[in-house]
Amino acid sequence: MMAFIRELSITGMHPTQMVLLRNLVSFIILLPWCAYMCRKKPIFKTTRMKYHFWRATVGIISMELWFYCISIMPMTLATALSFTTPIFSTIIAIIFLREHAGWHRWSAIMAGFAGVLIILRPDVQGFSYNALMVLAASFMMGISGVLVKNLTRTESPETIVFYMTLFLVFLSLPLAFIHWKDVNSYQWWLIFWIAFFSTVSHLTMTRAFKRVDLVVLMPFDFTRLLFVSILAFIFFDETLDMQTAFGAFVIVASTVYIAHRETRHKQKVAPPLPAGS
Known about the structure:
Oligomer: single chain
């Protein structure tokens, strides 16, 4: 998806227009799948429309920032910094959901931000202020993650993705029309694949998080940097430096440890199983 976004930006399309067209095509792609799922159960009924709306509001901000960052920054750098999203989710959950956080979890959070400093090399001449846009997008994604975590208690993955995409279409309209340009056939082709890969990714990841503990899934997130590095090198002649790779590894390791501590805490507070079960 990121590779197609970068290619689309090279054709001259503004990120806000990309976001609108991505959301519109994603909604069209999503409808047949939702129609198929409706044969089994009514997935569109919800009593939590307010949560869906606010999740989409946060999502549109993070998406606009993310598409903009991919358009102007090296893909590997943006990907490495995006690994901070689970860290922001943890901080938000601690502050606003009053989740328990001992020194183990706070140490892991600090280690994650140390990984950010390794990537950014914050000296006067070399600091990239565009990188702050990625961190802002990751922060908004972190809020979205907390909202999704809350929604999965009562909503199916298809319901969550359906209302998210529906609201995103309307929320992305105003900014897109400000920068609107005619779309050629090649750009439509790129938009289709951006929408396809993002929709499939959203659906599969939502199902994965419902079926498997977070601590099992988090290490696989690091493979995004590997895939992005290969595509960035082949198509855009971008290279991944070892300092960025090491910083990303530190961030991912901290998020894995946070997920591990959260799993252990849940096991401790879970009620004992009845005798004979």
